[in-house]
Amino acid sequence: MPIDSKRTLVLGIGNTIMTDEGVGIHVIEHLQKIYPEKEDVSFVDGGTLSFSLAGFLAEHEQLIVVDAARTGGAPGSVVCYEGNEMDRYLTGNRQSVHEVGLTDLLDIARLSDHYPENRALIGIEPESMDWGDEPTASVAPAIPQAADIVIKLIDRWGMQK
Predict the structure, then answer these.
(1) Domains delineated in the chain
(2) Which one of 5, 61, 124, 154 has the minimum C-beta count within 10 Å?
């Protein structure tokens, strides 16, 4: 890992002009406000995903992805899939265009020997993916909850150094 690299990439994905579909980006914005200079962490707005993000992934040892995810829970419910559980979710669940793109991005990391041992997907159940620049009332409260999970993962993984 290059000396100027950071340890953990927190990647929010989504489209902020489609209500709950952009919740991953809203979590990143929340984290950037609360932790503007969190040591060894990069908070990145990954938009709707692109292979150009492979470079970011290669520069980090750990990955946390935050996205809207259909898991069958109530709108606004938050899940955290870690390690192999994340891989299983992404392999078996193709309900979002992001999950397909995320799987492809992780395949690139695997092929280039940058697949993070510590990885997690924090998913927030959406209510609506219609046009709108704010999350719905049932999903908005999940933003700080998901941010707390991100920080707890970073702290726990930091103790494993």
Answers:
(1) 8-158 (3.40.50.1450)
(2) 5
